Amino acid sequence: MKPVVCFALLCCFCSLSYAQNASPADTTIYEITDVPAYPLMASCDPARHPSWALDSIRRCAEAQLLSILSNNIRYPAEAADGNIQGTVVTSFVVEPNGRMSNYTLLKDIGGGCGPEAIRVLKAFDEAGLRWQPAQMAGKPVRMRQSLPLRFRLKEALPYYLSENNDTIYTVLDVAPAFRYGIDSLTNFTINKLAYPQRYLDSCKTGIIEMSLLIRPDGTIHVDNQLDFSNLGYDFQWQAIRLANQTSGLWAPGQYKGRQVATTQPLRVLFKSDKRGCATANQRFDQAILLADEGAALLEKNQEDAAIAKWTEALKLHPDNTEILYYRGNAYLNQNKKEEACQDFNRIKERMGNTWFEPLRRLFCGW
Question: What is the pTM of this model?
Answer without folding.
Answer: 0.61
